[in-house]
Amino acid sequence: KKKAIALTHSGWRGTVKGIAAKTIEAMEENFASNPKDIVAVIGPSICKECYEVSEDVANEFIEVFNEEQIKEIIEKKDNTNNKYLLDLWKANKHILLEAGLLKENINISAVCTACNSNLLFSHRASNGKRGSLAAFLTIK
User: Fold this and answer.
1) Residue 99 lies in a domain
2) Torsions phi, psi for 42 (to 5 deg)
3) In this predicted model, what pLDDT tens digit does every residue of 9-43 receive, in sequence order?
4) Which residue of 48, 60, 103, 130 is 20 to 30 Å from 11, comparing CA positions?
5) Domain span holding position 43
6) Residue 58 and residue 75: Cα distance in Å, rounded?
7) What angle is formed at CA 73 by the lines to CA 48 and CA 47, rounded to 5 degrees?
8) Are 90 and 103 in contact (CB under 8 A)?
9) 123 part of a folded domain
10) Long-range contacts of range 97-102, CB-CB < 8 Å, 24 or more positions apart?
C-alpha cells in the first residue's frame, strides 16, 4: 500500500464542486492510492443545526446530489423565508463514498465550530469577524 496524505478545506462552494472527490482523484493519479485504502476525517466545522443557508445555496446542492441524499443534507427551516439548514458533514461523506472510500474509513469528528466558538473559530458565530483555524497532519 502507498503512503500518502492530503488535507482539503471544503466550504459549501468546494463541496458543491466536489473538492473531496477531486482530492481522492489526485491521490490516485499522483500516489497510486486506492480509494478503498484511504481513511478520511471530516474535522471540526459547522454543524447542520448552525448552518443556515439561502434558497440559492440549497438549490446548488439540489442540482448536484440525488433526491435521497438531499433528504439527509438539506432541511427547510420552519417559519422562515426560504432558509434551509445544510449538512456539509453528510454531503462530503456522500462525495467520499462515491469516490470509492469505504464507509468504515470515513470519520466525522462531529465537533461544531459554531457550537464551540469558545474553543474554535467560527466565521458565522463571530458575526463575520476574522479568525483562524489550523490543522496539522502527519504520516508514519
Assistant:
1) yes
2) -95, 105
3) 899 999 999 999 999 999 999 999 999 999 999 99
4) 103
5) 12-108
6) 9
7) 15
8) no
9) no
10) 98/21, 99/20, 99/21, 99/24, 99/25, 99/35, 100/24, 100/35, 100/36, 101/24, 101/35, 101/36, 101/38, 101/40, 102/36
**28 domain residue, yes or no:** yes
Give the phi and the psi of residue 106 in degrees, each rounded to 5. -115, 115
pLDDT in tens, 76-100: 987 778 899 999 999 999 999 999 9
**C-beta neighbour count of 111 within 10 angstroms:** 14
Amino acid type, 98: E
**Integer Cα distance of 132 and 103 in angstroms:** 30
What are φ and ψ of residue 45, in 5° steps? -165, 175
pTM here? 0.88
